[in-house]
UniProtKB/TrEMBL annotation:
SUPFAM superfamilies in the cross-refs: MoeA N-terminal region -like, Molybdenum cofactor biosynthesis proteins
Catalytic activity, EC: 2.10.1.1
Biological role: Catalyzes the insertion of molybdate into adenylated molybdopterin with the concomitant release of AMP.
Entry protein name: Molybdopterin molybdenumtransferase
Coiled-coil spans in chain: 216-243
Organism superkingdom: Bacteria
UniProt keyword Secreted present: no
Upper lineage: Bacteria, Bacillati, Bacillota, Clostridia, Peptostreptococcales
Keyword field contains Protein transport: no
Catalytic activity: adenylyl-molybdopterin + molybdate = Mo-molybdopterin + AMP + H(+)
Cofactor: Mg(2+)
InterPro entries listed in its UniProt record: MoaB/Mog-like_dom_sf (IPR036425), MoaB/Mog_dom (IPR001453), MoeA-like (IPR038987), MoeA_C_domain_IV_sf (IPR036688), MoeA_linker/N (IPR005110), MoeA_linker/N_sf (IPR036135)
Keyword entries, A-Z: Coiled coil, Magnesium, Metal-binding, Molybdenum, Molybdenum cofactor biosynthesis, Transferase
Amino acid sequence: MIEVKDAIKVIKSNLKPKEDTKTIDIINSINMVSAQDIYSPIDNPPFDRSPYDGYAYDANINRNELTVVGEIYAGEIFKGVLHRNESVKIMTGAKIPNGANCVIKKEDVSVINENKIIVNKNLKMYDNYIFKGEDIPKNQLIIRKGDIISYESIGILASLGIKEISVYDNLKIGILNTGTEIQELDEILEDGKIFDSNRYILHSRLLKRNIEPVIIDKVEDEIEELESKIKNILKNVDILITTGGVSVGDKDLVPKAFKNLGGKELFWKVKAKPGGACCASVLDEKLLFGLSGSPHASGVVYENILVPVIEYMSHKDSYNTIKAIFKGNFNKKAKIDRYLNGRLYTEDAKLYVEMTDKKDAKARLWATLNSNCMIKVKKGSILEDDQLVEVVII
Ligand SMILES: Nc1nc2c(c(=O)[nH]1)N[C@H]1C(S)=C(S)[C@@H](COP(=O)(O)OP(=O)(O)OC[C@H]3O[C@@H](n4cnc5c(N)ncnc54)[C@H](O)[C@@H]3O)O[C@H]1N2
Ligand code: MOO
């Protein structure tokens, strides 16, 4: 039995981040990890432009009455050159014409007629003037290899005309739900059987992290069939996650199957409550991870061990824990770290967390319904009202 942090460590030391890359349209790149440094190929903005609707002119005027010699809208250009005491009516975003070096807002002029204005403010050169490349100059490093693509970075890429980028390929993950008792949702529930909820929870958990499982299958508690399914799935995945069959029962065959197939066992059982029943092996640089069949227990291990591992293998690092003020009481001491279903909420600009399952019954799915986090109770401790607690964002 090892600590959660050591479980993560031992997996990381036996597996490398996935190096495969692919080139994709930026529209599909949200939350992907860039596999390249990206430099700006152009200046942004690509030309000197006006920040206001107004009039562009040379600030070195020698009178405040100016002749209006033309008008430019955004997207258009003024072909001539402005002379002193001449101006051009200009709209926000339009290219500032040659000869002009400032823009006066429309509100700051008196219009005499179509061809004449009086400027009511003294502007200096480059007042109200946006320079070419002022936002992002050409050759600027905008995204580093390893950066997670955000919608802001997608916006910047688009503004620079970059349509495709190279990213690390998604991890290929397979799900294998084990158990003779589990049934498909469209079957009639037989006596002694249950519907397979783990598959749906796990699939959704992966989707939430932008990972579409490549294979989803189920298998009864029969060692040969189990081994053969695992073997087949492994051909196409980087990580295989199983649920069920990892404890000490006669039909808890998953650790045995991993071993029989030649997997190197990294651990069996971790110090977490619930979730202690789980196992991990590596085989051909792939991770075989056996989660417990119990839905909350498997969620604890998924969020606290698998997420950091998945993030690591995806070149990310975002195991999120924060501190919040605990509301309520929890008096059960345990010899190992415990994880409670919780709900974070804010009140008067403070972050609070409360339990969603007063009984902390590990098998209860209901308690997970309104949960948005897990509350960590360190071994040997209890929780008191208003104390600060560590919370894992899920
Ligand atoms: N003698 C002992 N018995 C058990 C121990 C122990 O230490 N000694 N540990 C208990 C704990 S804690 C847990 S957790 C479970 C872990 O069991 P497994 O991981 O082997 O999982 P199963 O036995 O296959 O299933 C547990 C539970 O979850 C239900 N289940 C299974 N698959 C699904 C699914 N796809 N969807 C919904 N529910 C599922 C299954 O029917 C069981 O009720 O072992 C304890 N026993
Ligand atoms: O070990 Mo079980 O996995 O506590 O719920």
